[in-house]
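Why show two proteins at once? Because comparison is the fastest way to build intuition. When a single record is shown, students tend to memorize it. When two are placed side by side, the eye starts asking what differs. So, the first record is below.
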Amino acid sequence: MPNAPRYCPHCTTALDRGVPTGDTHARQHCPACGYIHYVNPKIIAGCIIERDGRYLLCQRAIPPRPGTWTLPAGFMEAGETTEQAALREVWEETGVRADIVSPYSIFSVPKISEVYIVFRAIATEETGQFGPETLDYRFFAPEDIPWDEIYYPAIRQILERYILERQAGVYGIYMGNDDSGKVHFMR
């Protein structure tokens, strides 16, 4: 297990690997004090922001795959709500301030232990400045989106579905994973 601790952070006893008493999963745990080392998924929060029929994408400046495009999104920080994380990431990556309209997608990728939470949002301010993780940002018409340069397959799938729903004027809330999913429509 990469980056797993070898010793208990509370009593410095060597950690064992196995199913702790009362638990259901094998984990590292301390036989002396009972500490359990949990490894939980990472949460990525972001927004689909539309303005005049165009969608905000940012071009990655950092690995993996700099130069590819994605929705503004990133890892949630401790002490943030998912909404705060999504709006912070939009601001850091594009210099755009936004207001959240509604949740849109909860998408799990268990193979890499990540959960994407994507909101619908509207732009309220565009500064033209963006952070060091971004090479560029743009609002794209659907026909101009660089589909083959969208880095994350989950993000491409979410954006494609959103554009179809936008054209139909009916939005769902999507819950799924990289193998299957279901759209729950809101009235």
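Second record. Ask yourself what differs from the first in the token line.
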Amino acid sequence: MAAPRFCPSCGGSDLGRRQPPGDTHERLMCGGCGYIHYINPKIIAGCIIEQDGKYLLCQRAIPPRPGTWTLPAGFMEANETTEQAALREVWEESGVRAEIHSPYSIFSVPAISEVYIIYRATALEVTGNFGPETLAYQFFAPEDIPWDTIYYPAIRQILERYIEERQAGVYGIYIGSDDTGKIHFIR
């Protein structure tokens, strides 16, 4: 995300990295009016959707890497909860209405300031309609998942772990980052 060149508050051009009084980090701050521009991580929310022992994947129609597969997920919008964002993204990308059962994974990617929150869910309604960000969607049996064409490594790790736990009948909450690897807690 590119930082603004002019102050969003006063329009001045004296934006620079400064540490505001009482803060612990340097921020983009206006020397004219004192406005502080916070650059916070983006939240991506989505679901692992199960139906009859199969898992929903969407084939990407948009960059990056169109044609690859991923879980239905996307950026959270203002004024919605992470659960609402996850269900909206599932609907927009697959035309599936779902019900969330529990959180499953929180995965941080600090290098690009993103946090992924993935929920366990089941399909309530499959409409057959999907949005423009999706080339196709499909429920895959574990042995039929196109593992080599899953775009995001974190999504592959999360899905692999989930399938192992589903088969064992025990679910945990999976947390980690691309810096430190994965940590897994069993409930």
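One difference worth noting in the second protein: The first strand starts at residue 15 and ends at 18.
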